[in-house]
Write a structure and sequence with these properties.
By secondary structure, this protein is of the alpha+beta class. Among the domains are: about 160 residues, Four Helix Bundle (Hemerythrin (Met), subunit A) (Up-down Bundle); about 120 residues, no CATH class; about 100 residues, Tick-borne Encephalitis virus Glycoprotein, domain 1, CATH 2.60.98. The chain is about 60% helix and about 10% strand. Strands 2, 3, 4, 5, 6 and 7 form a six-stranded antiparallel beta sheet that branches. A four-stranded antiparallel beta sheet has the order 1-10-9-8, covered by helices on one side. A hairpin with a 4-residue loop joins strand 6 and strand 7. The longest helix has about 30 residues.
């Protein structure tokens, strides 16, 4: 009964979405307040209905209701409860239901908290959001119904892929979807602005918090996925330029550009058309990621489905949504005349350079990801575009971006003095020189990538601190005055500096783990000791252990350094009888300087075991840096400007722009 209730709520949500997609648009055009109010009530109703639908599916998984085909295919009675619940979204059908749930959450948030939005704009935003939901409701109902019954019901289910039975991956998809779907709000604001024919500082102030929230969620999702791949897959790496990994990186890059571009619209009334275009492209790349993991064109542990029919449906949605929005942009975009003029050497110029480099990086990742698929589609040979290509293209684009990130915040709006800005970065220049000399003395000149990477990290980290020092006039005024200025800094300023410093920390971690990684593969017998990366590693014993739903072979290693015991490490090789699959559980000892990473493999005929040792210098800095970036985003999101809302819109119309049914901001 509960399952049928969830199915009914899903269909009813589609009906509500159809009303929400049509009536508020008519109301905004006719300036009918009652019709426009349907957008708010419809968004809240959609959220209640789809939450009921998703809750029904989660209940079926939690209670192991094997009369539901989705539960049979993705669960088992012996699974721990966390993974029973995670199984709700750990499959194609459930993940699409999660997608529309998050879409409804964002729509309900605008309806509930967007009281300062002009009613016409809010109506159009929620109507556009509803049309996106309609497309996915139809996709779920006609191709991916999660509530299909199985008669007769089997006694138990097939289980969940053991690689997905992990806390990191249990929370990875929800955060990733909060990012993907969150960018739909920026898209909806962009389409609403094109229909209305108006983009101004108030619009940018409204769209930035939603974009920032989506960017933060996507950052957390990517970080969790990277962390999971690092410790769960047993290969000692954190990123492999897998096409599905790239599918999340591309909207992150475009979203970062959008976030910075919107600030130019807000501050200087410039880059309007470019910002609208970025909003469309960012959400388009999110939809492209959805297509890649559900179309069957890729074979990956990350992929949800391999059904070409579903892929064609999503491809059709992609063409309609993105093609239609770009056509609207081509029609209405030229009317969005920019107001603020600026010189190339200015804060606007630095942000524009930031945008161009990020957009080029996203385009290069897109090309490398899709080229093998397009070549195969036209009958060409199968080719693989891997890390060598992406590293050769991506790193040269990031180097000037990082260099400009330290300088940009020190430039004035409209026109700036580059020499004066650089003179304030003397401490960053000294730190960069120190980093270069340190790497040279320790590793020599052969590691050019390592030298460049650590120099970039030092330059950006100290540059972010220098920008804060300039803001508070450190040593230029009494310390008490600097302290007062520091306490009164806007949270957005703190957030920007923390996010930039976090990126610097992450770059240092990527450089260390990528350039100076050590690896050793060998056959070991119990009692044998090997030296590796300055440690003495002894295999003490190997014994079988039983888990809640798996059997494992566990190795016990003693880690010593300078004659002192540092740790006992216990990697495992697990076998899941229900799924008939094996997983590798690495043992990792994390320190600030790097990780010792041990893996135990299969037993050989002579009684020895294949073992793999890795030393990953500074790898934990990657996730620490990502945490700093997210913390910076949270600080910026809590800034007073976002809490009190956007300023009232100006009554004056921009030349050549004809607003369609605008209304003043409400307070």
């Amino acid at each position: 009964m509960i399952v049928e209730l969830g199915h009914y709520a899903l269909i009813l949500a589609l009906a509500v979405a159809l009303i929400q997609g049509v009536v508020p648009m008519l109301g905004a055009q006719r300036r009918d307040a009652a019709f426009m109010e349907v957008a708010r009530t419809g968004a809240l109703a959609q959220f209640v209905l789809i939450a009921l639908s998703f809750g029904s599916l989660m209940y079926a998984h939690a209670t192991s209701d094997f009369s539901v085909a989705n539960v049979v295919a993705n669960s088992h009675s012996s699974k721990p409860m966390l993974y029973k619940l995670a199984g709700t979204w750990g499959n194609h059908e459930g993940s699409m239901l999660l997608w529309v749930l998050i879409l409804a959450i964002f729509g309900a948030a605008v309806a509930a908290f967007g009281v300062n939005l002009p009613q016409a704009l809010r109506a159009r935003v929620l109507a556009v959001q509803s049309w996106i939901a309609i497309a996915f409701y139809l996709f779920i109902i006609f191709t991916s119904d999660p509530f299909t019954r199985m008669i007769p019901a089997p006694l138990d289910g097939a289980g969940l892929n053991p690689l997905l039975q992990d806390p990191g991956l249990a929370f990875h998809p929800p955060f990733l979807y909060l990012g993907y779907v969150g960018f739909s709000m920026a898209f909806s604001f962009a389409i609403a602005a094109l229909i209305e024919g108006r983009v101004d500082a108030a619009w940018a102030r409204w769209v930035r918090p939603w974009t920032l929230a989506a960017w933060m969620f996507l950052t957390v999702g990517i970080t969790l996925g990277s962390w999971w791949a690092y410790y769960e897959l047993g290969w000692g790496g954190w990123w492999f330029w897998d096409p599905v990994e790239n599918a999340s990186l591309m909207p992150w890059l475009a979203g970062t550009a959008l976030l910075h571009s919107a600030s130019v619209v807000e501050k200087r009334d410039a880059l309007k058309g470019w910002t609208i275009f970025l909003a469309i492209v960012t959400f388009g790349l999110s939809l492209l990621g959805t297509f890649l993991v559900r179309s069957g064109v890729l074979t990956s542990v990350h992929a949800f489905a391999v059904d070409p029919a579903r892929g064609i449906f999503i491809l059709g949605l992609l063409v309609v949504i993105i093609g239609g929005s770009l056509a609207l942009f081509a029609w209405r975009g030229p009317a969005l005349q920019g107001g603020g003029l600026f010189q190339p050497i200015s804060r606007e110029g630095a942000l524009l350079l930031n945008n161009l480099l990020l957009a080029t990086a996203a385009a290069s990742v897109l090309l490398g990801t899709l080229y093998p698929l397009m070549l195969e589609a036209v009958g060409g040979d199968k080719v693989s575009v891997g890390p060598p290509f992406f590293n050769a293209v991506f790193i040269p684009l990031m180097a000037p971006l990082v260099a400009a990130m330290a300088v940009g915040p020190l430039l004035a709006w409209k026109r700036a003095d580059l020499a004066a800005a650089l003179s304030r970065l003397w401490l960053a220049a000294l730190a960069t020189l120190a980093a270069i000399l340190t790497v040279w003395l320790v590793h020599g000149l052969r590691d050019l990538v390592g030298i460049v990477g650590m120099a970039m990290a030092a330059w950006l980290f100290v540059g972010a601190l220098s920008e804060l020092a300039v803001r508070i006039k450190l040593f230029a005024v009494p310390l008490s005055e600097s302290a007062r200025r520091l306490a009164n800094l806007p949270r957005a300023a703190w957030g920007m500096s923390l996010a930039h410093a976090g990126l610097a920390v992450a770059i240092a971690g990527m450089t260390g783990a990528g350039v100076w990684k050590q690896e050793s593969v060998q056959l070991m017998t119990p009692g044998q000791t090997l030296s590796f990366a300055g440690y003495d590693i002894t295999l003490d014993a190997v014994q079988p252990v039983a888990g809640p739903n798996y059997e494992a072979t566990r190795g016990s290693f003693t880690l010593e350094r300078d004659g002192r015991k540092r740790a006992t490490m216990t990697p495992e090789k697990r076998f899941y009888p229900v799924e008939g699959r094996q997983t590798t559980e690495a043992a990792i000892r994390t320190t600030v300087s790097g990780d010792i990473y041990l893996v135990i493999g299969d037993r050989q005929g002579d009684g020895g075991y294949v073992t793999r040792f890795y030393f990953n210098p500074l790898v934990v800095w990657i996730w620490a840096g990502a945490a700093f970036m997210v913390a910076g985003g949270l600080l910026s999101l809590s800034d007073r400007r976002h809490r009190i809302g956007a300023p009232s819109r100006k009554a004056a119309r921009a030349p050549g722009v004809t607003p369609i049914g605008t209304a003043g901001a409400r307070t």
